[in-house]
Amino acid sequence: MMDKEYDIYLVLGSLVISFLTSFLAISFASFIVWHKKSNSQWWLFGAALNMGLGIWAMHFVGMLALHLSTPVAFEPIRTLFSAIIAVVSAYLAFWTLVSADFKNQVQRKLFGTFVLGSGVASMHYLGMDAMQMFPTIQYDPSLFLLSLIIAYSASFIGLSLFLKSSQQTKQTLFSGANLVSALVIGGAVSGMHYTGMIAATFDYNSYCTVLEEGIRFGALSVMVIGIIVVMLLLSFALIAYEQYIELQELENNKKLYRKVSKEVEKRTQELEQQKGMNERLLETMDAIVVVLDREGKINQFNQTAQTATGYTFKEVKDRFVWEVLIPYEQIDGVKAVFNQLKAGQFPNQHRNDWVSKQGEVITIDWRNSALLDEKGEVDYILGTGVDVTQMIKDQQALELSAVAFNTQEAMVVTDQYGNILKVNQAFEVITEYSLDEVLGKNMQVIQSGRHDKAFYQKLWKEVEVYGFWQGEIWNRRKSGEIFPEWLRITKIMGQQGEVANYIGNFSDISQRKKIEEELEFLAFYDPVTELPNRRLFNDRLEQDLLHCKNGSHALAVLFIDLDNFKHINDTFGHAFGDELLCAFSQKLQDLLSDDITLSRFGGDEFVIIFSELHASMETAMFQCEHMAQIILEALETGLEVLGQHIFVSSSIGIAISSDCKTDSDTLMKQADTAMYQAKNMGKNTFRFYTESIGESMAERFNMEAALRQDLSLDRGIFVVYQPQYNAQKVIIGAEALVRWDSAIYGMVSPVQFIPVAEDSGLIDELGMLVVNKVLDDIQTLGGLFQTSSLQHISINLSIKQLTDPNLANRLLTKFQEHEITPNKVRFEFTESAFLDNALDPKTLFSEMSEIGFTFSLDDFGTGFSSLSYLKELPISELKIDKSFVDGIPHEESDTTICSATIGMALKLGLELVAEGVETQEQFDWLAEQGCDLLQGYLMSRPIPFEEFNKLLKESNQ
Ligand code: C2E
Ligand code: CA
Ligand code: CA
Fold this sequence. Notes:
By secondary structure, this protein is of the alpha+beta class. Strand 12 (about 410-415) and strand 13 (about 420-425) form a beta hairpin.
């Protein structure tokens, strides 16, 4: 057996070769993995060459290190073939490692290991065979197996390490994993070789059979070293170049990044400045950054952009931006902007939309700029954008709310305590408060004070419960003016369910209210006099009728119509007429208490409701009459109209309902009818509607009105005289009797109208009128009174007249005015004068008799005659009532009374008059009994003054 000696330096050299070539092979393979080189076949081939030739070179350097005692040479074909096997298996092994075809990492590793391990082993044993030793080299089987195990296991470990290191993000060739992997693979190659060499046994006598034609050691070493050196140099050069390129690229990228980030920073700042109002939005948002290359393909797409769009960088990289992100209808616009930028027109701002992966549209505000290369040409376009989708929404909402806030409607926002936070312009206009004046103040500043506490409590309770209140409310302007508003209060809840704000919206409805009121006014009021119109009047009348149905009181309607208004209107014009109506209305209002409804029906018709009259018809009529009287009298002083003093009168019709069962229409018609009757009575008077009241009672009141009217006009009232004769039928005296020729009633008997005058108080006026007329007539008689037989004229006095304490003076004045002595007149009064306890006629009588008046006790014997009066009072005459005279001479009782009365009178020294003497028998009987004076139809009826005058003259001729 031949000794095997090794040159230790060459052994080391072989180790170095196997390590270096492994390292280079790994490096080439790494580039393939890292850079995904399109020319990866060449890089793979480089790796295979390094690995394969490295194994091969290692083997032969290892063989060179071996010193055999026999010279050896290497058969060239086998030698070449061994190299090819090594390269091919290395190629396959690295292809396995970098190929994308292997999805399964374990398969990849196992296959790579098998290929590489087999290649290493095949190369070695084929290389050994190239020596063609004889006898052939013997191999120890267990060592042979060990050499294979080493080849496979070391290949496995080495390749695993490579795979690991190639997948690391940090792409550096001189990583620990790479170096260890190179060492392990190098170790696999040399370990296998030297184990194989140990396994080999060279026969002692063995010799190389190809010594002559084989490659000798010298040539081999030159060849091996040459190949290795060239390969190493080329490889290193290649790696160095590649690294340089990579570095360059890296540097470029870094530059780009620097540029980009600088621009981003700048643009972000710009955006922030420009979008000052929207700072908050920006604060929470990083800029979207996208870099496009010259063609418009996406080159950079930052995290914000990815988040905003839902696309990863990989998904959009190298795709045209308008193909991925821009909505169809905006593509042309975006392209135009892009072309502008490319043409160097920048910086540029614009807004466009992106469509996200999920299909959502986001709006982005862009600040674009072009990044230039060294030559100043546009290299990339940088877009820095802010997603303004939300901002736009907010802004729109804000604009909307701003529009809403600045409506005609006032708006006020308060905090939960009602303190004012914000008001709009309409608020300022309506309330006259500026925001500054009310800011922080409570809403109470504009409270009017018109509503009570309960009102506000109810309001706020509703707001609390329903979150809402609306209604009409009165508030106060700064000027103090109170105005109505339509207010809505809305409660705004905070996030935690607490009350955050209240919003009040209101509009000033004073105008509306005014119009409403005006409309209502027009509907219910007469625009000229502002009195209720017929409609409102009817309402009220019906109300009042309902109200009085219980019979507690009576109700009356007074229909007032101005007399001759048409004439005034025609003469002075309608404007004047209107003024007159106003003046009249004012006068009426002054007279009436506020609770009485006065209304105008149009034209010159006014109507009054007296709703609270006394339940008794008679008293109610008195009340109405009184009122009508006041109205008529008030007009007597005239009206002031447009600087003129105008006299107008009115006619009043009165309808009374004591049980209030009459319906309003009927009542109105009745009053109207009565009014026309009053007109017919000659105007300036009033009249009751008779039918419903009862003829007699109505008649009395109507008569009174008629009488009053005639009295005031001195119309139809005159005096007649009934002569009084002595037994010789000479006229000694005359009784003045009043007559009333009424326009309505014709001749009315004093028996009828005297009581009316007495009840109404007209008697005073009437009495004075009679006195006046009588005095006038006495004046007319003049000297005849002296020369004739006439001694006095009797005038009847009502007991009502006797109640006037000034009567004596007033009468005296009248007489003095007429220059007539009181003794020419005798006053008749009846016994009923003494029935009134309140009346003490004694003083009056004595006063009057002192003046010179004389008295006659009328209707003697019909009443409650008290003889004591005859003594006490200064009475000159007694008048036997007609009822006693009637019975003369056949009625015994009458004759007895008459003769007794005559006897008494004679005794007392009183004159005696018998009235109602209608027959000669009566005359004779009375004359015979000693009656001084006789009065009756037998001698004369009451006659007009002219006749009386004539009669007097005749009888005294
Ligand atoms: P008297 O004072 O008793 O007046 C007499 C009445 O008898 C008068 O009625 C007269 O026309 C009427 N008479 C006179 N002679 C006869 C006769 O022969 N036969 C009939 N059947 N009647 C006769 P007259 O004028 O209607 O007056 C009625 C009453 O009215 C008067 O009653 C008197 O009380 C009252 N009266 C009349 N004029 C006045 C007056 O001016 N003032 C007041 N206070 N009362 C007056
Ligand atoms: Ca009389
Ligand atoms: Ca009489």
